[in-house]
Design brief:
It comes from Aspergillus heteromorphus CBS 117.55. This is YVTN repeat-like/Quino protein amine dehydrogenase. InterPro entries: Centrosome-WD_assoc (IPR052778), Quino_amine_DH_bsu (IPR011044), WD40/YVTN_repeat-like_dom_sf (IPR015943). One of its GO terms (biological process) is microtubule anchoring at mitotic spindle pole body. This protein is mostly beta strands. It has a domain of 131 residues: Methylamine Dehydrogenase, Chain H. Helices cover 1% and strands 46% of the residues. The protein has a 6-stranded mixed beta sheet with strand order 1-2-3-4-5-42, with no helix packed on it. A 6-stranded mixed beta sheet has the order 29-28-33-32-31-30, with no helix packed on it. It has a 4-stranded antiparallel beta sheet with strand order 6-7-8-9, with no helix packed on it. It is globular.
Amino acid sequence: MDSTGAGVSNLISLAEDGDYAVQLSGKDLIIHLDPASPEFKEVQIIKLKENGSKFLKFSRSKPVLPSSTHSYAGVRSPGRRVLCANESRVGIWQLDPLQRHAEIESIEPGATYVDFGGDENEIIFFHAWNTKITVFALDSGRSQIIRSPKFSSYNGFGYRPKTRQLAVLLKPDATDLLTVHEFRSYELIGRATLPTIDAQGLKWSPDGRWIAVWDAASAGTRVLVYTADGQLFRAYSGPPGLDKSLDLGVRGIEWGPVTGQRGVSELLAVGKIDGTVDVLKTTTFSCSISLSHVFQIEENPPSVWRERYADGDLEYAEASSSSAFGLPAESTGPLRGVSIMSFSANGKLLSTVDQTRPNILWIWDLESTPVLLSALVHEHAIRQAVWHPSKMQLLITTASTAYAAVRYWSPYSQPLIARIPVPRSETGRYDVRWLSFDEDDDSKFWFGTPDDYVLGHIEGVEGTPQFKALSTINGKSRASSYGPSTSR
């Protein structure tokens, strides 16, 4: 969030599928309804009652069949909504047509997190000091309370895919609890006292079969896998033969996508503080392979690409493994461990970043015998590695303060770097997100800084890469430049 004066906020938020964007400028809520359309970009403005809003969220898109009404070809998903909230007031608007749907007022001040709940008819509100969660039902006016959440972030709670039961970590006293609640009624389905020192988070598997909880690094390797109703199924404590005296513990986890005819998530990646990644098969939750970020000379070495300047522009050039992996870059983030793990849409590739060398992106092929497929070496630490939701394409951003650019990798072509036409970020904070529902050959994505976002795609993948902008959002623009407004 960027402040332009006392109580005046600038904030930009994107829908998870990239189909909508909303921008806050003081009391003006500017909604971009069709930023991907090649025709006129429809923008509507809502006048808010007060400054100081700090939460902007879109309701989630619903999974639909291609023959149904959805976001393809500019047709909007039904029932999408947007919320704008400050510490004690929440406003909700319907997007199509744009109209105010509901307002929640007189809430205890001090909200730490606000979002839509299980669907567009629910608002989940985390109160100050993590004293409680209130879930507001917009259609019935009822509210449900869950006390003592451990975290007010996505690490601390999650809705089950499809059926939307809520799993949440609680800390009512000295012990960690996992509770599972029924959708809408929030009746208690399951409750488990966790054998953890200090649980760090939970994640539902994409197929909705499992809930994984990981413990603090001081506990060593400890990942607990629970069934959808909160029953302990497996406790993973590391690969066979692990020397417990050298076990530095878990930094984070990442589920593989739903794949195959069985329609299940087959892999669970466990990122460790020591820089290794344990890949577990979900049939037994035992370690099938441990990936190491210590480069080894192999008979079939991976392709290594290094970022370099050429005629004032950045590009990738092939490099020898010895030069690429010689000296670690200075870490700008947390000191130890695997900080990024991201699966490709088909689950066959895994990209990782280890904080020992935070400037290197490692890409692993997991299809048969896991091998290091490629490594991309950059001048600055990597911020994001984001796979396309359906294609074998990867976008990368780094914490460069001098050059606003996106890096593109695919197994089918040479990696490339494209400059993005936005002002560079003084902090190196760049954000990239694919447009999820995109049937065109040109894969569109959003690229943003704290003040600006641009939607477009890369042209000339086989030649000189150029970014073609389709829509731009400037966070510092005044709302009056967008045309007529509507008071709400």
